[in-house]
Design brief:
It is a single chain. The protein is an all-alpha fold and about 200 residues long. The chain has one domain. About 65% of the residues lie in helices and about 0% in strands. The chain has nine helices and no strands. About 35% of the residues are buried. InterPro entries: CGCAxxGCC_motif, Multihaem_cyt_sf.
């Protein structure tokens, strides 16, 4: 499909089979859950969700680390929406050639597809502008970023599915986390780190 700057039809907007639509909805909710429970930030949630769902080449830790620099409008710079940046990295992972000295023109086209679909939905890609009306209201700001995280995951998943000619992963989305579960994981991680330091200090 040839895409232009203001294309109305795109992979991101294409109609899905009921089965694919159900999976995309699950992935959207999973990314939102990872963000909403504060398990991950926006770009991290998008990358982890799509990498896992479509059998990407990254470990969970690599996906989180890759997404970490994009979060909060690229490290609190307020620049590009972190969720969108995570979505672009995800689309590149599944549409790029992955070899030296070969053209990645198609991956760039797919990235532009995601960018253009995002702009059609939200008018801008700028984190500062997207959250401008919620600066004084932390709850609304958080809700806005949760919605953007889910929307990017949905759009990127649609592009990846279209790239695979409708072939979708048999994996189901992971079970939703609760805030208490996430807090428990963080406390557990702190204890593991402290124990490791204590053991190292005893040697």
């Amino acid at each position: 499909m040839k895409l232009n700057k203001y294309a109305e039809a795109s992979f991101a907007d294409a109609e899905l089979t009921p089965e694919a639509a159900a999976i995309v909805e699950k992935l959207k909710l999973q990314a939102e859950n990872l963000f909403e429970t504060r398990a991950l930030l926006c770009a991290e949630a998008v990358l982890v969700t799509l990498n896992e769902a479509f059998d990407g080449s990254l470990s969970e830790e690599q996906a989180i680390n890759l997404g970490s620099t994009f979060c909060m409008g690229v490290g609190s710079a307020g620049c590009m929406c972190g969720a969108l940046a995570g979505g672009l990295a995800s689309v590149g992972m599944f549409t790029g050639k992955g070899r030296l000295a070969t053209s990645n023109a198609h991956a760039r086209e797919c990235g532009k597809d995601l960018h253009d679909a995002f702009v059609r939905n939200h008018k801008t890609t700028c984190c500062r502008t997207l959250t401008r009306n919620f600066k004084e209201d932390a709850a609304k700001h958080f809700a806005q970023c949760t919605m953007l995280t889910g929307n990017v995951t949905e759009l990127a998943a649609r592009i990846i599915i279209a790239e695979r000619c409708g072939v979708i992963s048999e994996k189901t989305a992971r079970k939703p986390l609760s805030k208490a579960h996430v807090l428990g994981m963080r406390v557990g991680n702190i204890f593991r780190i402290l124990r490791k330091k204590w053991v190292a200090g005893c040697r």
